[in-house]
Amino acid sequence: MTEGEGLFRDGDLIRVIGREGVLIAAGGAASLLQTAHPKVGQGVYDHSYTADDPSRRLRNTMGWVYTVQFGTREEAEALSALVRKGHEAVTGPDYEANDPELQVWVAATLFAVAAQFYQLLFRRTLSRAELEEFYRQSKVYATILGCPEERMPGTYTEFREYYANMLHTLEVNDTSRAVAEQVLHPKLPGGPLGAPGLAAVRLLTAGLMPAPIREQYGWKWNAGREFRFRLLIKALQVVYPRLPLRVRTIPRDVYLTSTRQMLAKTRRRPAISISTNGYGKDAAA
């Protein structure tokens, strides 16, 4: 991994937490929290290639996340400029992908799910000071895309108020449910061979999803599913933290390398745009 002046340092929590490759497994929960917002859901439904090429969407999303977290400042800003350009075309009667309201919500979900899953996996409760630090650093997911920082909840306490209010006021509609169906039942190579893994991801997504949103999506949740979710978490708690760090960070290294190769191409083809939400053109295609 290239060393250089990044937006963050190796000891920063956004890197300590973000380097864990298993967080990708919780991506479904973050993604479907985002699309629970009707405007985000409609934008994804109207413009996304998620249903046709979920692997490409994952590559674009994780490439951007890892570049912001671990890339140089130049790389993070260059890629985010491409994302903003790609989002300019994502508009509809009642939404714009670059709307600060939606950027704040997306950033909030990335922080909330990462903090939740990390603490579960490592059986470690982050202190209030650590949560404040991690939240402050996670604002970058909105601000680097052009969202004014003052639009974000200023402190972790204010974030908690904002997040709780959103969870109890969002109204999941049929469009968001259609997007959820695409995310949870993707067309992946391998057919039946991938079924067990997808079943585990669906269980993890439902278990991590806040109850008010899970209920609105209409997902079945009973004692049996709760038991299987807790069993899955316990298995991950036993196995994952014991893996060597170099193994746990393989996804970061792979996606970051791929994204850097794509960025090198954009220097020769400056008109390319990219999106983290599966909208529009793919700079890595």
Automatic annotation (TrEMBL):
ER-bound oxygenase mpaB/mpaB'/Rubber oxygenase catalytic domain residues are 15-236
Q: What GO terms are given for molecular function? A: oxidoreductase activity
Q: Which Pfam families match?
A: MPAB_Lcp_cat
InterPro entries noted in UniProt: MPAB/Lcp_cat_dom (IPR018713)
Superkingdom of the organism of origin: Bacteria
Q: What is this protein called?
A: Oxygenase MpaB family protein
Species source reads: Actinomadura livida
Origin organism lineage: Bacteria, Bacillati, Actinomycetota, Actinomycetes, Streptosporangiales
